[in-house]
Amino acid sequence: MTTTTVLSYGTAPNQVIHADNGIDYTYREIGTGTVPLVLLQHFRGNLENWDPQLVDALASQRRVVAFDNVGVGATTGTTPNTIEQMARDAIAFITALDAPRIDVLGFSIGSFVAQEIALIRPDVVRHVVLASSAPRGGAGMHRWAPEVINAVGQPQPDTKGYLDVFFTSSAASRQAGQETLGRIYGRTTDVDKPTTWETRQAQYDAVCDWGIPNHAALQRVSAISHAVFNTGGDSDPMILPHFSYLLAGLIAHASIRIYPDAGHGFLFQHASEFAADVTQFLNDNG
Fold first, then answer.
1. H-helix or E-strand spanning residue 74
2. How far apart are CA 271 and CA 48, in angstroms?
C-alpha cells in the first residue's frame, strides 16, 4: 500500500481509521513507500508533539505514519495502564493500516511499546529504532526521579519543565529546544486534542510497572531477533543512557548511538543527523 505525497507533517491532515478492536484511531502520514515507518510517541505526547522537521526528514525517502494510541489525543477509548496492552492496541492500528510489514520507531514510552510489538507480533516488524529506551525489568527504571516527573508530569504542561528534561542547559541545546517548541506548536488548524490527566496517570502506571526490577524480563527482551538501532542523548535525565547500552547488550542484532550535549529530546535537537542515521540503518538492513 502506498500513499499520496504530503509535503510536510506540519500540514498533513488528521485522518481516522476504524480498527477491529472497536477503536477509531487518529493519525497522520507523509511520504511514500511500501513499508511504512510507524512512530510511537512519548509520555503524554500526541500527534502535535512530533517535531515536523524530524518527520519531514524521515519521510524524504519513505512513508511515515504517526498515530494516537488508544485514549490518547483524538483516538477513542481509554488509555490502558500496561505497556503490553498498549502494544496490542498499536498492533490493532497497524492491522487496520493493511500494512503486512512495518518498520517501527518508538520514542520513550513508545520505545517500550515497540519492544513489545516486536515480541508479540515479530513477523509484522521488519526493523526497530528505539529512542530513549530501557528494557523491561532494568534496575533503576522503577519510576522517574522526582525532578523529572515534577517537570513533565504536572496537570498542566510546563514549557520550562519540558526544556529542562528534553534539552540540556547549554546555550546550543536550549536554543534548539526553543526552536523545537516553535515548530511543534506552530500548527493552528486541525490540531489534535490534548492528552488528558487520565492518560497521564495510566501511562505513568505503565512506566512504573515496566521498571519493576525483573531479571526474567531482561532475558525475555533477548528474544528480539530484529535489527535494532538503540539511540539516546548523553545527558537524558528521564531515561539514562546506560539503558541504551544495556539493551544493546541484550539484543543480538543491535547497534547504538548516543548523541552529544542532548537530553530526552535528542532526536529533535539533532533532527537532521538522527533522521540520516535512521535512514542509513533502515537502508543497510534492507
1. none
2. 16
Q: pLDDT (tens digit, 0 to 9) for every residue of the chain, 286 residues total?
A: 444 456 799 999 999 999 999 999 999 999 999 999 999 999 999 999 999 999 999 999 999 999 999 999 999 999 999 999 999 999 999 999 999 999 999 999 999 999 999 999 999 999 999 999 999 999 988 988 889 999 999 988 889 999 999 999 999 999 999 999 999 999 999 999 999 999 999 999 999 999 999 999 999 999 999 999 999 999 999 999 999 999 999 999 999 999 999 999 999 999 999 999 999 999 988 6
- Alpha helices by DSSP H, listed for the chain, are 52-58, 83-96, 109-120, 146-152, 159-166, 171-184, 197-210, 215-221, 242-250, 266-269, 271-284
pTM: predicted TM-score of the whole model, two decimal places: 0.95
Q: Which 3 state secondary structure label does DSSP give 261?
A: coil
Residues 6 or more apart from 266 whose CB is under 8 A from it?
Answer: 131, 132, 231, 232, 233, 236, 259, 274
Q: What are phi and psi of 236, to 5 degrees?
A: -70, 115
| Cα–Cα distance measured from residue 24 to residue 19, given in angstroms and rounded to the nearest whole number | 6
DSSP 237: S
Which helix (H) or strand (E) is 104 found in, with range?
A: strand 102-107
22 Rama sector, left if φ>0, alpha if ψ -120 to 50, beta otherwise: left
Strand bridging mode 24-30 / 37-40? unpaired
